[in-house]
Amino acid sequence: xxxxxxxxxxxxxxxxxxxxxxxxxxxxxxxxxxxxxxxxxxxxxxxxxxxxxxxxxxxxxxxxxxxxxxxxxxxxxxxxxxxxxxxxxxxxxxxxxxxxxxxxxxxxxxxxxxxxxxxxxxxxxxxxxxxxxxxxxxxxxxxxxxxxxxxxxxxxxxxxxxxxxxxxxxxxxxxxxxxxxxxxxxxxxxxxxxxxxxxxxxxxxxxxxxxxxxxxxxxxxxxxxxxxxxxxxxxxxxxxxxxxxxxxxxxxxxxxxxxxxxxxxxxxxxxxxxxxxxxxxxxxxxxxxxxxxxxxxxxxxxxxxxxxxxx
Length: 311
What we know:
With 311 residues, the chain is mainly alpha-helical. It has one domain (3-221): ABC transporter involved in vitamin B12 uptake, BtuC (Orthogonal Bundle). Helices cover 76% and strands 0% of the residues. Helix 10 (200-239) crosses helix 11. The termini are far apart.
């Protein structure tokens, strides 16, 4: 097989899912840094679970798996979950982690049961899709090679998940840059932030909203496994590398992209290198690599000061 044919196959079959994986990983890792520093990392886990019943109900109401009904349903479910967590925390007088665990496990179980009882198999909406996404299926059918990257007609046939995730990542990056000072102050000293009018409550709500946007945008393409891993593992690994907030964010984005690329390559080609006949789940391998990156950072990361806040 010629190099040109191999390149054409890569562009058509692997380039788009690889880029989607990288964008999804980075979009989740960005707000994950602030959730981690606020000791709220499980919020990303909760939201990635509770979007499932919203997506299922959106399909049952509309009969379609179009993008906007799915995103609206998932967004509504995320808002409902935030309200339920707060209600359980206040009325039941339990700590936030317990309230969060009750809500996201209950809603995710409700979503799984609804999937099992409804006729969604014909549209590829099932439990496996919810967990692992449909990353491998996001192929670029109109691509004929690298020249397709400059062909407007071919570009029009790109999977919509790619453009959506690119837009979400750009939006989150712009929001982080615009409200960087407020995010940093409210994360490390909410009392001081309130005293100077930085409104830490509003900033916290905005962070949860950004988390929900990232989770909803990534859920359809990569499933909940990657979403959960990327909210936690790259930021946690980055935290072991530096005490500076800006450097931590940069490290986390690099770790997220590295996990996506290495995980995708190992899932598709790794089994063949070992003589195994079948590829493995890209989502599962990407999440596994992100965990290995965290383990390496924990073992080999530079010594950090345990006191003081990152600059």
